[in-house]
Design goal:
Length: 407
């Protein structure tokens, strides 16, 4: 039987798997790993959302097939959210589709709008599905350096000129996973002008729009006149309402792109479990103080992380948004790279992070730290890291026993 499957072969080795394997092995030996690796929210889903799920699930009619584009009430609630949050009027029947989390929607739209050989501009570093969704679809990826917005804008035109055929899709992700970078409407205005000049579609991932820590809520590209002619935006309830395992997201924007995603989804799924869709509707339509409470938890953890790690000898820039910190590898370990540093950190400090190289070549030299441990655990991690950094020479020379620096 042939086993060299073409689409699987196009996928590079999953860098995070090395870290995950090492983490699992350490736990199997009884080590207590303080895990900042996966961006998996640990807070409980607000009670009014869970209560609505339970109430709806008791209805025997709710266990039937749902609809892949989302029940009408949910799509109306999603459209109303855009009106409240961004001042953008959305047609719930033509410009909204519910998705099984933003990741599924993004990957399925890549299948719908690209053919083998099409060229896609993707920021680098970036959340893996932004590139891999198109790789699976057979597209050619051109990486645009994106450690900061200015870098991204300066490289767009140069990268596009190097493409043959001309690129047809541009991917955006702000607030950014993994770099926690935010942008303003002036940035989107420049990007939109570029996309109009090159007749490109824009796919914007806005999953972290509600996790911000200053007085400037991140904007949507759809706020700009003309953006809806070529743009679609993805978001998710996972972080906003602490609902990661519920797998509930949505896409809004250009009617043709929404229709393309809706059509391909109609062949692949029947949508999320109806009680989940009803509960998601309650999330949008119910009290919104829970968002402020979730945001406050992340802000407190961010401040604790930055302060504690600074005392430990690791300067980490304070992120202004997302549930992540994007941290340079400490200078003592710069030469070994982000993957080896992450592995050493598990072995010697019992702390897990995500190596920056897993988010693309321009992520090398950094690690992503997810704010998914409470403040007590963050301080414990900092104490372990302090010992780890202080013993850097011995660790790098393989002279320190694995348990020596972990408390």
């Amino acid at each position: 039987m042939k086993t060299d499957f073409h689409r699987i072969q196009r996928l590079p080795p999953y860098v995070f798997e090395e870290v995950n394997t090492l983490k699992a092995a350490a736990r199997a030996q009884g080590d207590d790993i303080i895990d900042f690796g996966m961006g998996n929210p640990d807070m409980p889903t607000p009670a009014h959302i869970t209560d609505k799920l339970i109430e709806t699930a008791r209805d025997p009619r709710a266990n039937r097939y749902s609809t892949s584009r989302g029940i009408p009430g949910l799509r109306r609630a999603m459209a109303a959210y855009y009106g409240r949050r961004f001042g953008v009027k959305i047609d719930p029947d033509r410009e909204v589709v519910a998705t099984l989390g933003s990741k599924e929607g993004f990957a399925n739209l890549a299948q719908a709008v690209t053919a083998p050989g099409d060229v896609v501009l993707v920021p680098n570093p970036s959340y893996p599905i932004h590139a891999y969704g198109f790789i699976i679809a057979g597209a050619v990826i051109q990486h645009v350096p994106a450690l900061n917005p200015e870098d991204f804008l300066s490289h767009l035109a140069v990268t596009a000129k190097q493409c043959d055929p001309a690129p047809s899709v541009l991917v955006l992700n702000y607030p950014s996973n993994p770099t926690a970078t935010v942008v303003d409407l002036d940035f989107y205005r420049e990007v939109l002008t570029f996309a109009e000049r090159h007749d490109m579609m824009i796919l914007s991932d806005l999953a972290y729009s509600e996790i911000y820590f200053d007085d400037n809520p991140p904007p949507s590209i759809l706020q700009l006149p003309g953006a809806r002619e070529r743009s679609i935006e993805f978001s998710s309830l996972s972080k906003t309402y602490a609902m990661p395992g519920w797998r509930m997201g949505f896409a809004v924007g250009n009617e043709r792109l929404v229709a393309a995603l809706t059509r391909i989804k109609s062949y692949l799924d029947y949508g999320a479990f109806t009680p989940i869709q009803v509960a998601a509707t309650a999330a949008f339509n119910g009290p919104q103080e829970c968002i402020d409470e979730i945001r406050a938890v992340y802000k407190s953890r961010r401040d604790c992380l930055v302060e504690s790690m600074k005392l430990a000898g690791w300067d980490i820039p304070s992120p202004v948004a997302t549930m992540f910190a994007w941290a340079p590898v400490p200078k003592q370990f710069e030469h070994v790279g982000s993957l080896e540093f992450s592995k050493l950190l598990i072995q010697h400090a019992h702390v897990a992070v995500s190596p920056g190289i897993g988010f693309g070549q321009f992520g090398e030299g950094f690690v992503r730290i997810a704010l998914v441990e409470n403040e007590q655990r963050i301080r414990q991690a900092a104490r372990n890291v302090r010992k780890f950094i202080n013993n850097a020479d011995a660790i790098l020379n393989d002279k320190t026993p694995r348990q020596a620096v972990a408390s």
